[in-house]
TrEMBL record:
Keyword RNA-binding belongs to the record: yes
DUS-like FMN-binding domain mapped to chain residues: 17-175
Gene Ontology MF annotations: flavin adenine dinucleotide binding; tRNA binding; tRNA dihydrouridine synthase activity
PROSITE patterns for the chain: UPF0034 (PS01136)
Keywords, comma-separated and alphabetical: Flavoprotein, FMN, NADP, Oxidoreductase, RNA-binding, tRNA processing, tRNA-binding
Needed co-factor(s): FMN
Species whose genome carries this gene: Salmonella enterica subsp. enterica serovar Alachua str. R6-377
UniProt xrefs under InterPro entries: Aldolase_TIM, DUS-like_FMN-bd, DusA, tRNA_hU_synthase_CS
Listed name of the protein: tRNA dihydrouridine synthase A
Length: 193
């Protein structure tokens, strides 16, 4: 089965600004929105733990940023559902699950790119969020992890998450994630685009 390329329920953005930790904060997004109204903006990845237990307002944004997606990091379906519900109540236009970050810190928290190795858990996470919100729930992922980078691996991952998790849109970072042996900065040399 071939993955769908476009869902009629989701808007088709020509381009978007990737979520970047320590860069796409609300001030950066406000500036980017001044440059274009035709792009979907993403927050930095915010973990479920930060939203649930943190003291800061990790869901803050300016109304001028719309359309804006909250990128969540986590792997607990109930916590992700709770955070998605909070984000929808705050007015976010989309929830995006990070299944692409390869950093050791993120892997130790059991989220990011390491989740590609457990498509069923990703499907459960997406389904839990979709069950409690009416806004789109999307997944940002890589083309593979370590030595699991075949087209068949990516298709199996997408088919599981789209079928059982009911995810309608995937944002593909068209590089694989090295989960062992390389830092994210080193992957640029090891895996040229």
């Amino acid at each position: 089965m071939q993955p769908e390329t476009q869902s009629s329920a989701l808007p088709a953005y020509r381009f978007s600004i990737a979520p970047m930790l320590d860069w796409t904060d609300r001030h950066c997004r406000y500036f980017l929105r001044l440059l274009s109204r035709q792009t979907l903006l993403y927050t930095e990845m915010v973990t479920t733990g930060a939203i649930i237990h943190g003291k800061g307002d990790y869901l803050a944004y300016s109304e001028e940023e719309h359309p804006v997606a909250l990128q969540l990091g986590g792997s607990d379906p109930a916590q992700l559902a709770h955070c998605a519900k909070l984000a929808e109540a705050r007015g976010y236009d989309e929830i995006n699950l990070n299944v692409g970050c390869p950093s050791d810190r993120v892997q130790n928290g059991m989220f990011g790119a390491c989740l590609m190795g457990n498509a069923q858990l990703v499907a459960d996470c997406v389904k839990a969020m979709r069950d409690v919100v009416s806004i789109p729930v999307t997944v940002k992922t890589r083309i593979g992890i370590d030595d699991q980078d075949s087209y068949a691996f990516l298709c199996d991952f997408i088919n599981t998450v789209s079928g059982q998790g009911e995810c309608e849109m995937f944002i593909i970072h068209a590089r694989k994630a090295w989960l062992s042996g390389l830092s994210p900065a080193d992957t640029t040399d090891a895996d040229p685009v």
